[in-house]
């Protein structure tokens, strides 16, 4: 093997310029593969992290996935029963016995939960009216499952405990109605239930619609306004491991009978788009290495043409066809290994440089750096793909060289 390796090295150094051009192609291919992959994977993980942090991991609502079975269908399950024009009972909506269900959820390890009553209300101030979403919350529980606590520009979530007649509104709503901390407004909900509430907190989430239409009050205040005593219509859950949300949601839906939606289910469309985006990204960056492999094919093909007589002499001296095949495959492997190592170093430098680039997205208040993912998998994939490309590119000229017949070469037939 040492002799074959020495012959391969001699071939590569005899045409140093062509070898360096092929090597440069592999280095740039690996480096760009790594840089683009790190940037795309980093942006995907950053997006998913923001998605997980800003939305409930599981939401249990007072709805059912399918309509309740009727008594006739339960009594005669195999009969041809058709029931038309079924009208649901007119009842107070909400999750029944929510205190018991809350105790069950709180007992689950790694789960934080908050009960919420969500309804619609009309905000009145200075002769102006606007429909808003009214959420009744328990501040100490809501703080554990919501990003809201970090978004306050005045007041805090705990202000609702200090002033039970308080309300928290978004920054856009405050600006629209010229409200500030301490302002009083009227809220109309339910069947003309009216309360005068004092603004005790103003938040700015960055979502214009959310900041203009979302308001928060104490849970008891919301139950009185919406005329749903001892009722809630939503549980918000945050998990220590967000990726267990789908299994736990299915388990809770079976146990409670209410619809439980995990963040994975709610974001399926977005996550599917990320998979397609990754396929496109890997196809594009892999094409760079495929193009680089054509350079290696051209270089080794040239070696075979120029070294035809040398190959004939080697075979005349007793070298087998597989030895000749190995020599030219070694040439491709040497370029692949060196190109991978140097490409990984250059790619890491590019990743470091990209990670230092600062950007301020439209609508954002803070400057952030480009998200870069430093996972070991992409280094392994880049090196392995480059090495396989080099071996594949060198195989055809290597096979051609191994099939040369020394007598034909020495006679000048090839």
Q: What are the salient characteristics of this protein?
A:
414 residues, alpha+beta, 2 domains, 6-stranded mixed barrel, two-stranded antiparallel sheet, elongated, ABC3_permease_C, transmembrane helix, ABC transporter permease, membrane
Describe the protein.
Its main location: membrane. Pfam families: FtsX, MacB_PCD. It comes from Chitinibacter fontanus. Keywords: Cell membrane, Membrane, Transmembrane, Transmembrane helix. This is ABC transporter permease. This protein has 414 residues and is α+β, with helices and mostly antiparallel strands. It has two domains: 197 residues, no CATH class; 161 residues, no CATH class. The model has no long low-confidence stretch (mean pLDDT 83). It is elongated. The strands form two sheets. The chain has a six-stranded mixed beta barrel with strand order 2-3-8-5-7-6. Helix content is 55%, strand content 18%. The two termini are 28 Å apart.
Assign an overall shape: elongated
Quaternary structure state of the chains depicted = single chain
Which structural class should the secondary elements be placed in?
alpha+beta
Say how many strands there are: 12
Which H/E pattern describes the elements? HHEHHEEHEHEHEEHEHEHEHHHHEEHH
Please give the share of residues in helix: 55-70%
Strand order of the largest sheet: 2-3-8-5-7-6
Work out the radius of gyration: 34 Å
Q: Output mean pLDDT.
A: 83
Give the uncertain stretches in residue-range form: none
Instruction: Please state roughly what percent of the residues sit in beta strands, choosing from under 5%, 5-15%, 15-25%, 25-35%, 35-45% or over 45%.
Output: 15-25%
The profile of the biggest β sheet is: 6 strands, mixed, barrel
- How many domain units? 2
Total DSSP helices: 16
Termini gap: 28 Å
């Amino acid at each position: 093997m040492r002799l074959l390796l020495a012959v391969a090295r001699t071939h590569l150094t005899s045409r140093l310029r062509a070898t360096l051009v092929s090597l440069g192609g592999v280095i740039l291919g690996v480096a760009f593969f790594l840089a683009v992959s790190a940037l795309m994977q980093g942006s995907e993980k950053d997006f998913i992290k923001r998605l997980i942090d800003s939305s409930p991991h599981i939401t249990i609502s007072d709805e059912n996935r399918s309509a309740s079975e009727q008594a006739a269908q339960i009594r005669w399950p195999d009969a041809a029963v058709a029931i038309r024009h079924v009208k649901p009972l007119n009842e107070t909506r909400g999750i029944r016995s929510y205190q018991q269900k809350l105790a069950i959820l709180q007992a689950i390890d790694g789960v934080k939960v908050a009960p919420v009553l969500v309804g619609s209300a009309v905000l009145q101030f200075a002769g102006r009216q606007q429909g808003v979403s009214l959420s009744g919350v328990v501040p100490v529980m809501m703080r554990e499952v919501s990003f809201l606590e970090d978004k306050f520009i005045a007041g805090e979530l705990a202000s609702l405990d200090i002033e039970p007649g308080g309300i928290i509104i978004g920054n856009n709503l405050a600006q629209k109605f010229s409200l500030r901390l301490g302002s009083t407004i009227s809220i109309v909900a339910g069947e003309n239930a009216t309360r005068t509430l004092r603004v005790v907190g103003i938040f700015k989430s960055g979502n214009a619609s959310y900041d203009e239409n979302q308001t928060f009050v104490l849970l008891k205040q919301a139950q009185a306004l919406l005329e749903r005593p001892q009722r809630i219509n939503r549980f918000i859950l945050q998990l220590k491991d967000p990726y267990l949300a789908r299994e736990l949601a299915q388990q809770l839906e079976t146990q409670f009978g209410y619809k439980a939606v995990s963040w994975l289910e709610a974001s399926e469309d977005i996550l599917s788009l990320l998979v397609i985006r990754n396929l496109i990204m890997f196809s594009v960056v892999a094409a760079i290495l495929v193009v680089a492999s054509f350079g290696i094919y051209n270089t080794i093909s040239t070696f075979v043409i120029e070294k035809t007589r040398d190959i004939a002499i080697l075979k005349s001296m007793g070298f087998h066809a597989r030895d000749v095949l190995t020599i030219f495959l070694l040439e491709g492997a040497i370029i692949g290994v060196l190109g991978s190592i140097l490409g990984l170093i250059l790619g890491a430098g590019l990743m470091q440089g990209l990670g230092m680039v600062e950007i301020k997205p439209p609508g954002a208040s803070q400057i952030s750096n480009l998200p870069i993912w430093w996972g070991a998998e992409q280094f392994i994939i880049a090196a392995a793909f480059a090495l396989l490309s080099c071996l594949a590119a060198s195989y055809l000229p290597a096979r051609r060289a191994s099939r040369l017949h020394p007598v034909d070469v020495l006679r000048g037939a090839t």
